[in-house]
Write a structure and sequence with these properties.
six-stranded parallel sheet; alpha/beta; about 230 residues; about 45% helix
């Protein structure tokens, strides 16, 4: 995913939520000042492999979801999914986070040499300033949803979960699975519900780009395709 391709979708997200692009760019610049370049070739080992993109819904604790993660060749965890999987004895190969829930886990993982993808956006600058210096820079990739600058990359995606999926695609993953995802979680608030709707649309876009169908979208694929068609036609 390059930014020129992603930018129209990014602009639609900004418009829908009323987010400030300038704030995203300021956050990106703060992250850039605290980052060093990360060699994306470190993910070359994911090429052609089955990558589990683990979400943080409560169902991740279910035996079937843990099994799905355990059977994958590579596990990329979104936010608190990393803690659940580690507790279950499942190795995490990469953590994707915007630093809002479990930054201590990210510190521990980078100290062990596990890559962490730390995302900067307009609402988390204090967390970026506080936590990025604590990570081992050699194992930290910083990302933005705005245009990439310096060491800060944009691999696509909006939420931690779908950003993890776009990262896996960027690395050449052969197949993606999605343990721990629930687009209809009744316990999330209105903002999270809207973000999950966007995550579904972005996964639908990734399906289309990859020529693959993700089981996690089976019960909503038609709706997602309609929304996606309308979005991309604008």
């Amino acid at each position: 995913m390059n930014f020129e391709t992603f930018e129209p979708v990014y602009e639609a997200i900004l418009a829908d939520f009323g987010f400030d692009r300038h704030a995203d760019e300021e956050a990106r610049d703060v992250a850039a000042s605290l980052s060093t370049p990360f060699d994306l070739s470190r993910f070359d080992g994911w090429e052609g492999r089955t990558v589990a993109v683990a979400g943080g819904a409560p169902r991740l604790r279910e035996d079937e979801e843990i099994r799905l993660a355990r059977e994958a060749d590579v596990v990329v965890a979104a936010s608190t999914a990393a803690d659940v999987l580690l507790e279950a004895g499942v190795a995490v190969d990469c953590l994707v986070t915007d630093l809002d829930k479990n930054p201590e886990t990210a510190v521990e993982l980078t100290a062990r040499g596990v890559p962490v993808v730390a995302h900067a956006h307009g609402d988390n600058v204090p967390a970026v300033r506080e936590w990025l210096p604590r990570f081992d820079a050699d194992h930290t990739l910083t990302t933005t949803q705005a245009a990439p600058v310096g060491p800060v990359r944009n691999v696509g995606g909006f939420t931690d979960g779908d950003r993890a999926a776009f990262l896996a695609d960027h690395a050449g993953a052969g197949r993606l699975t999605f343990p721990g995802w629930n687009f209809d979680d009744p316990d999330v608030g209105p903002m999270k519900e809207r973000k999950l709707a966007w995550a579904a649309r972005l996964l639908g876009w990734l399906e289309r780009l990859r020529g693959e169908q993700f089981a996690v979208l089976d019960d909503r694929r038609d709706r997602v395709r309609r929304e996606l068609d309308a979005l991309l036609a604008e």
